[in-house]
Design a protein that fits this description.
The protein is of the alpha/beta class. It folds into three domains: 9-140 and 311-324, Rossmann fold (3-Layer(aba) Sandwich), CATH 3.40.50.720; 154-303, Dihydrodipicolinate Reductase, domain 2 (2-Layer Sandwich); 348-432, ACT domain (Alpha-Beta Plaits). The protein is built from 14 helices and 18 strands. It has helices at 18-29, 31-38, 71-74, 90-101, 111-128, 144-151, 166-178, 182-191, 200-203, 206-220, 239-247, 309-324, 367-377, 407-418, and strands spanning 9-14, 42-48, 65-67, 81-84, 105-108, 132-133, 157-163, 230-231, 250-261, 264-275, 287-294, 298-305, 352-353, 355-362, 382-387, 395-402, 405-406, 428-432. Helix 4 runs parallel beside helix 5. It binds NADP nicotinamide-adenine-dinucleotide phosphate and L-homoserine. Residues 140, 165-167, 194-196, 202, 207, 306-307 line the site of L-homoserine (HSE).
Length: 433
């Protein structure tokens, strides 16, 4: 970084898609305001893309070079900060690794990379005394990274519950409120720039899982590999279950959550029934929300746009500005020990919550009794049970809401159901928040 504290900070931007364009727009639009806050200019120097001949949605300032050569950014001695907004793992890892080796601070929005290879990069950044900042990687415009790293640094974090994926929330809201089919809602989310380049990351819960891994690292100072996190996406959520959940007073949301129980972390990402009285139930569209409970602060709810060009660009710019302040000392993970220890996670079988189970059964005597008996055997207590609608081909839906029960007990019930000839295969099971 240029040692003269009012000298311009020069940026090498890697990626000029949705988020890159958002960043370039705000840098231009708010240049005077940024100068007033920092006492120096932020100057875009080079922009790395895959295809330099592609038409761009946003014009670059005069004199800014487009390049397809990653080394043009990392070997340029005039570039102070490399901003990685390409996505993907291998090319992004190589670029950031080289940039840190070359003594440049790095800002990234790449949660997949930081979830999977973050520990290596944070170790290198610590060794070099450089910043590796990533506010935009979790929940778009919402300042949750800064909140956990700095604002709540003195708290023991009891729990985090979040709607962490804008695309999934947009799809579920569109299905619930507008009756849009899943595929149409996904297409619209892609058009609006919310989805990942590979949208299976969004709909299979992996993008939310990547973000949860980063939040766990920030809140608990522990590394949790993706392979040890329970992850389920939204592809099994149907309009019928959205309607049934609604009749019980719930809405279905993709939830990422973690809490501490007996010294271990209980964590996972899955679609859950959220009671309509909870604030999280009213988070709609591409909005995200994160509820953090600290032992001193109590509970805090952050709500805002979870995806899109300007909201995400806003978070990227905050990191660039933080790293541009004269005399700043990087704080990347929020902990001084490096590497961070591995997370101690509770066995999923022991995790406890209420459950929603939707069986499709033959409309005949004894069915309800057999299911209730299985629940009794496994110690699952029923809170509500409803038979819904008219028989179709002789089958009807029966929907149960249970009291809190361990995952192991619910699996026992589902295994029993799979052996009952009067229950159609494909019993639906969701957890209740
Ligand atoms: P995007 O629209 O697909 O843009 C990616 C950009 O990176 C494009 O300009 C592309 O070049 C360039 N690029 C990709 N691979 C490259 C490579 N190997 N070498 C050089 N350039 C390469 O992606 P995005 O939606 O902006 O997302 C960028 C990052 O931000 C991702 O990590 C994503 O997870 C994260 N993020 C996105 C959002 C969002 O709302 N979209 C929100 C938060 C975080 P071309 O233009 O030439 O193809
Ligand atoms: N694809 C992500 C989402 C972008 O839909 O939330 C924001 O991280």
């Amino acid at each position: 970084m240029n040692a003269v504290s009012d000298a311009p900070v020069r940026i090498g931007l890697a990626g000029f898609g949705t988020v890159g364009s958002g960043l370039v727009t705000i840098l231009e639009r708010n240049a005077d305001w940024i100068r007033r806050r920092l006492g120096r200019d932020l100057v875009l120097k080079k922009v790395l893309v895959r295809d330099v001949s592609k038409p761009r949605a946003v014009a670059l300032p005069e004199g800014v070079a487009l390049t397809a050569d990653p080394d043009a950014l990392v070997t340029d001695p005039e570039i102070d900060i490399v901003v990685e907004l390409m996505g993907g793992i291998d090319a992004a890892f190589a670029l950031i690794h080289k940039a840190l080796h070359a003594g440049k601070h790095v800002v990234t929005a790449n949660k997949a990379l930081l979830a999977e290879r973050g520990p290596e990069l944070f170790a290198l950044a610590a060794q070099k005394g450089l910043g590796l900042y990533y506010e935009a990687s979790c929940a778009g415009a919402i300042p949750i990274v800064e909140t956990l790293k700095e604002s709540l640094a003195g708290n023991r974090i009891k729990s985090i519950i979040g709607i962490l994926n804008g695309t999934a929330n947009y799809i579920l809201s569109s299905m619930s409120d507008k009756g849009l089919p899943f595929a149409d809602a996904l297409r619209k989310a892609q058009e609006l720039g919310y989805a990942e380049a590979d949208p299976t990351l969004d709909i299979e819960g992996l993008d939310a899982a990547h973000k949860l891994i980063l939040l766990i690292r920030l809140a608990y100072g522990q590394n949790l590999p993706l392979s040890r996190l329970f992850v389920e996406g939204i592809t099994r959520v149907t309009p019928e279950d959205i309607r049934f959940a609604g009749e019980f007073g719930y809405t279905i949301k993709l939830i990422g959550q973690v809490h501490e129980a007996g010294g271990k972390l209980v964590a996972g990402v899955c679609p859950m029934l959220v009671h309509q009285d909870f604030l999280l139930a009213s988070v709609k569209g591409a909005y995200n929300a994160v509820r953090v409970e600290g032992d001193a602060a109590g509970s805090i709810l952050l709500h805002g746009r979870g995806a899109g060009d300007l909201p995400t660009g806003s978070a990227v710019l905050a990191d660039i500005m933080a790293l541009s302040r004269a005399g700043m000392t990087p704080n990347n993970t929020g902990f001084v020990t490096e590497p961070l220890p591995d997370a101690d996670v509770l066995d999923l079988d022991d995790a406890v919550c209420p459950h929603y189970i939707h069986f499709t059964v033959k409309d005949q005597a004894g069915v309800m009794a057999a299911i209730s008996k299985s629940m009794g055997v496994h110690g699952v207590s029923i809170r509500q049970a409803v038979q819904k609608g008219e028989p179709e081909d002789g089958y009807v839906p029966i929907v149960f809401l249970t009291h809190e029960a361990p995952e192991r007990a619910i699996r026992g019930v589902l295994d029993d159901a799979a052996d009952m000839a009067f229950i159609k295969p494909g019993t639906v099971h969701f957890r209740v928040l």
